[in-house]
Amino acid sequence: MSTRSWLHKEWSKTIVLIEQLKQDEKGNNVFVSIGTGFITEHETFNILITCKHVVFDSEQKTFLPNLFASFNQKDGTLGRRSLETLKNELKINWFFHKDPNVDLAIMPFGIDQEKDDIKRMSKDLYEKIEEIAEGEEIFFLGFPALGIKMEKNIRPIVRSGIIALIQEDKTFLIDANVFPGNSGSPVFLKPSVMDFQTNTLGQIRPAKFIGIINSYLPYHDVAISPQTKRPRIVFEENSGLANVYSISFIDDIFNSDEFKKKVEELKPKVAENNKPEENKEKNLPPSSAEPSNPPKVD
């Protein structure tokens, strides 16, 4: 594989596949892809971020059962971590935004440094919405539900687009091909020599993390009966636009009293779990990773 791409190979290691364990028609257990997540940092913790609707049924007001985060392991095999087991062992749950309409969910996540081939996204990569502009090129990594088989290991699909519209509520639209399964995909500014704030050429600006994909915007086409003149069928199509939450919404959750309180409660647990010998006895992975250098675009 060529190494000339601007996309650093370490970027994909921050992405995890969210799956649900179900039974097929024959009663066999199967893992079904339902969304994308990624690992970032907060203080000494690893944090898993995805969309709220990936893990929570808003109509039934219940958390979805049998969820797993899937990722590659250093021995070349596929690893899966039960999110239910992780919640029970650390006595945690998903954290949501104070606005129930904001479709984001975050949770501390355990990483086994010896086995898991996972990197976490440094906060040095975060770019505020005030620093981005319409027309800038973006890319995102995720697992659209397109039937692509990934049995031995996983590799997120890279897609690109542009920032189409920045909205006053600190969300923005991208013009890009987004499909079910991309929910929770992180969005990045593509490296550029153009400074969109001043419309001048300058030094190459590295890739920056700017938001999380929520969903595509549907286009509805209504079929009208020629006899009754009443709508009969509504066709829904992908408009080619997708909604993205800026990193401001992540910061809102990090700064919430509920999240801060839980972080303080977990700190002694993190210190305990980071003792390798005790982890082997408990079969429990560390809850925080050693700080790693943020992936940078060469």
Describe this structure in words.
The chain has two domains: 11-122 and 249-282, Thrombin, subunit H (Beta Barrel); 125-247, Trypsin-like serine proteases (Thrombin, subunit H, Beta Barrel), CATH 2.40.10.10. Helix content is 15%, strand content 40%. The longest helix is centred in the last third of the chain and has 17 residues, at 257-273. The protein has helices spanning 52-55, 83-90, 247-254, 257-273, 276-282, and strands at 15-23, 29-42, 45-50, 56-57, 62-63, 67-72, 78-82, 95-96, 105-108, 137-142, 157-166, 171-176, 186-189, 192-195, 200-205, 208-224, 231-246. A hairpin with a 6-residue loop joins strand 16 (208-224) and strand 17. A seven-stranded antiparallel β-sheet has the order 7-6-1-2-3-9-8. A six-stranded antiparallel beta barrel has the order 10-11-12-17-16-13. Strands 4-5 form a two-stranded antiparallel ribbon. By secondary structure, it is mainly β. The relative contact order is 0.18. Residues 276-298 have low confidence and may be disordered.
